[in-house]
Design brief:
It is built from 17 helices and 15 strands. It is α/β, with parallel strands linked by helices.
């Protein structure tokens, strides 16, 4: 392969998120550590900021989500695409990596690739990320395969890209390392500290740095595709994660972190060590120089999480994001989360006693819930309104979708699922209104 190589990796809109996205930072650090000159960019944030308060925001979202183009935004979309291309090409890359965080990045990817092929046809384009949707069994040709066959991209990769991406730039293209769903690498313990040198932190509403502390999950939720990509749960040691935090604090003077993984306490032993390290680090420091963190947190059976654990979470300035999914114990356990409403109540009592704040993630109407479950869910918010604001700082509600390749997609009765859609939406809206009436801050995503 010709040299010198110069790689630019960037996020692709639209990601409705106001903190840094970690993928380009990790991949650029990985390649740089192996002698490949690489720049990681999070250009999505510029699009996020542009349309955040724009009165035509919904028209932009129609473009990103559905490729609908309204004449009112046509010129602005053109400017947006050229701006994106300019920001990438100013680094004079030989290769461009486009990181698709979700399916919602596909439309912009197609348009950007058309533009890049027009103005810089010699530059190789590689796309990757979970937004490629390569688990789909519905089409003869997948999204990345269609772009490759039409000449818009050179290669794609999804899954565990670490070893394959290094091999591609060090050894050249091989059938085994590109245009595939890469198998999970067993050497996760060698992960590097992310490089945010080319991120403009003034662009972000919240200056928080993501750290990938684990991948995969110890739970088997039927609706989730994480366990389909990551068959084995892997985690970094407490010392590794804490060392990354210290390095990033020293480099960027930022003390707030997001654990950018599906679960932060999957390995309870290492998690306990980590938050104790953070708690010890924080003692005696002014608040602005203390570490703060957010992380996805499993609610376990009553008694599994001790008073000491919750005390360390408080002293480490932890904020827990807890996937409850359904307010029916029966539906929740059946979908793959092994805790009851009694266990949930114990968790809330512990959080309140120790001053720990949490977000609840909910699927507002799971497809196996009954009318009785609907009534119980409405009553749950009434019964638990004493936690609103003080303990439960936010409830995020969404409607159930079926992701390709998941257990749910394989097992669900589609006719029954679709026939019940209207009733689920009616209940979801009632639940949203009820939660608000009870004093909860609720974000709905439908």
């Amino acid at each position: 392969m010709s040299s010198p190589l110069k790689v630019v990796i960037t996020t692709i809109p639209f990601i409705d998120w106001n903190t840094p996205i970690s993928s380009p930072a990790y991949l650029s650090a990985l390649l740089n550590n192996h002698g490949v000159d690489c720049v990681g960019l999070d250009l999505n944030i510029e699009i996020y900021n542009k349309i955040k308060n724009d009165p035509l925001r919904n028209l932009y979202l129609d473009f990103f989500y559905h490729q609908k183009i309204d004449a009112k935004i046509y010129k602005s979309l053109s400017d947006m695409l050229y701006h994106y291309a300019k920001k990438i090409l100013e680094h004079r890359p030989t290769h461009i990596g486009l990181s698709l965080f979700t399916h919602d990045s596909q439309v912009f990817t197609v348009w950007l690739c058309h533009l890049l092929q027009k103005i810089a046809p010699k530059i190789k384009i590689i796309i990757g990320g979970p937004g490629l949707y390569t688990l789909s069994q519905k089409k003869n040709v997948s999204f990345p395969e269609s772009l490759r066959s039409s000449g818009l991209i050179d290669h794609f990769i999804v899954g565990d890209v670490t070893s394959n991406l290094i091999a591609y730039f060090k050894e050249g293209i091989k059938e085994s390392n590109m245009n595939v769903v890469a198998q999970q690498d067993l050497e996760f313990h060698n992960i590097v500290t992310p490089n945010y040198d080319h991120y403009d932190f003034f662009n972000y509403e919240h200056k928080r740095l993501p750290i990938v502390d684990s991948r995969g999950c110890v739970q088997k939720c039927e609706f989730c595709d994480v366990i389909e990509f990551w068959k084995k749960f892997q985690y970094l040691s407490a010392q590794n994660v804490f060392s990354q935090m210290q390095e990033l604090i020293e480099k960027y003077n930022i003390y707030r972190f997001d654990f950018a993984s599906s679960i932060s306490n999957g390995n309870l032993v290492e998690f306990t060590k980590l938050i104790r390290m953070i708690a010890q680090y924080n003692r005696g420091k002014v608040f602005s120089k203390q570490i703060h963190w957010n992380g996805n947190f499993i609610i376990r059976k009553k008694g599994r999480h001790t008073d000491l654990l919750f005390n360390d979470i408080k002293e480490s300035n932890g904020r827990l994001i807890c996937g409850v999914e359904s307010l029916s114990s029966t539906a929740r356990i059946k979908l793959g989360k092994n805790f009851t409403n009694e266990d949930l109540d114990d968790h809330l009592v512990q959080c309140k006693a120790h001053g720990v704040q949490i977000d609840l993630l909910m699927i507002a109407a799971y497809h196996t819930e009954t009318q009785e479950d609907y009534a119980d869910a409405l009553q749950w918010f009434e019964t638990h309104k004493n936690y609103a604001g003080s303990v439960i700082t936010r409830v995020q509600m969404t409607l159930l979708g079926i992701l390709d390749g998941t257990k749910l997609s394989r097992d669900v009765d589609l006719k029954r699922f679709n026939d019940g859609r209207e009733a689920r939406e009616v209940h979801a809206n009632k639940l949203y209104e009820k939660a608000k009436q009870c004093g909860f801050h609720v974000d709905k995503f439908w």
